[in-house]
Write a structure and sequence with these properties.
With about 230 residues, this protein is α+β, with helices and mostly antiparallel strands. The chain has four helices and seven strands. The chain is about 35% helix and about 20% strand. The chain has a five-stranded mixed barrel. It comes from Tessaracoccus antarcticus.
Length: about 230
Amino acid sequence: MSLTFRRGLTILIGVIVAVVMLVMGLWQMARFQASIVDVAAERAAQSPVPLSESIAADGTIDDIYGRRVQLSGEVVPGYELLVGSQWPMRVVVPFEMTDGRIVPVVLGLGDREVNIADAGPTSIEGIFTAGDQEGESTPPADAPAGSTATLRLQGLVQQWPQPMVAGYVTLDADAAAQYSLEPASAALPEVQGSAMHQGYALQWWVFAAASIAFSIVVARGLKPRLD
């Protein structure tokens, strides 16, 4: 075999090995992403906790983001807010708990005409999450004045009654149906996945780069054969 052929073959073998390692790294990263989803789903499936008991007097909140919570009180009328970048939009209302603190609650998804009847004191349950991240989207052009594309709690502080809890609750499908609304999806927080899978993925990619580099070094070190 010629020197050029042997060098090319050596590099080709290194590339093939690198491709296999890249695939293994992608598989491990997929496992990492799956572990994130699994952990978030597990938190959301845990038994609900009383929201009022999970908030200290100074407003500090326990590790309950992404979990189901229970709260008792009533909707404060006259503050309905539509949130979203397209129809149907999330219907958000202030919910005053029995201890006097205000919690934004996503009742569900509604169209242009949304009228929330005063249901009086009640108990509700849903997923507790932090405020939405700010984005570049805007509400629909025909949305009512005051509508927003994202649920930014900072913007509600100056508009809604106080004191307000640093988070909001999204009701499930059954609770949304009681208000004649479609269910809204709760934005589950990102949680830490399995560091083991992430570490293995990075390891495989380092090995892939090393494999190509090694094959190039070996190929360049080959010498012509003397017949």
